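User: Thanks for the earlier help. One more: Peptidyl-tRNA hydrolase ArfB-like. Can you show the sequence and predicted structure together?

Assistant: Of course, both are below.
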Amino acid sequence: MLKLSNMVQLADWEIDITAIRAQGAGGQNVNKVSSAIHLRFDINNSSLPPFYKQRLLQLTDHRITKEGVIVIKAQEFRTQEKNKAAALERLQTLIKEATSP
């Protein structure tokens, strides 16, 4: 569960997280281990309050598709766990920045 505020939380089922192979230099494990994370979050089909959805859909962020899906790729760390945490943190930051006054 991703906590956005005291009243707003996202359930795990709303966030689609997939492990993928990282690109670029990485030593022995590059192209062998799926350590990068690909996160997808559908704004329109989420449990977010309407105000949150409206503010997110108004953003001109390259991570938000025309269909209203947030796509975040995290591959800066060597482990899936750290990349997953980084992707979730980016999602949380994006939503909080969009809805802050």
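User: Great, one quick takeaway?

Assistant: The longest strand covers residues 36-42.
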